[in-house]
Amino acid sequence: MLASCSDEKRNIPFTVTGFFTAHTNANSHIYKVTDDMGRTYNVFEDNSELSPNTTVRIVATIEGQDGDTMITNKIFPLSEIATLDSKVQNELKVKDPVVLKSIYLGGGYLNVNLGIMVKNENTSHNIFYTRSNSKKNLIFTLYHNAHNDEPIYTQNICLSIPVWLHIHKNDTVSFCYKSFEGDRVEKIIYE
What we know:
By secondary structure, this protein is mainly β. It has strands spanning 14-24, 30-35, 40-45, 55-65, 68-75, 83-84, 99-106, 109-118, 126-134, 137-145, 153-162, 172-179, 182-189. 0% of the residues lie in helices and 55% in strands.
C-alpha cells in the first residue's frame, strides 16, 4: 500500500515578494514589515542600517516559518510625497518613454513597477513624479529624462507613491506617463 499523505503536522515555510512598509527599531534595524493587505510579519534577521524608529517603503522578498521572518532581498523604491506639478519648471518636464509593468493601489500607496531602457548599469536617468488635483481626481505625472541613453536592456524601477494624504473613497487616481507607443493614462478608483 502506498500513501501520499501523513498525519504528521508541519508548518510549511512561506515566501512573499512585494511592497512592504518596514518599521525600524532604536538600533536602526527592521524589526517588522507590514504588507499592503495589513498583515504584519515580525523580522528576526535584518542587517539594514536605516534611521532609528522610523518607517520606510521597501520592495522585498520575505521568508518565514513559525513566526520567524527573514528579509532575503530588498530594494528601496522611490517613495516621496509628490511635488505639485505647477511648482516644477517646464524645462525639467522631460517625458522619455518607460514600460509600465504593473500598477496598483495598496496600503495607502500607488505602487508602480516600471522598466526603463538603459545602455549599462552605470547610466544616469532622472525620474520623478508630480501631483495635481482636480475634484475627485488625484493625478500623478511621471517624468523621465534618459539623457539620450541608448536603449540596450530594461532596468526595473519601483515607485511607491504616498496617496493616503490626498485621497478619499471613490476618488480616481490617474497615472500619466509616456510609453513607447505614446502618452498614456492609467486610472484606478480608490475604494
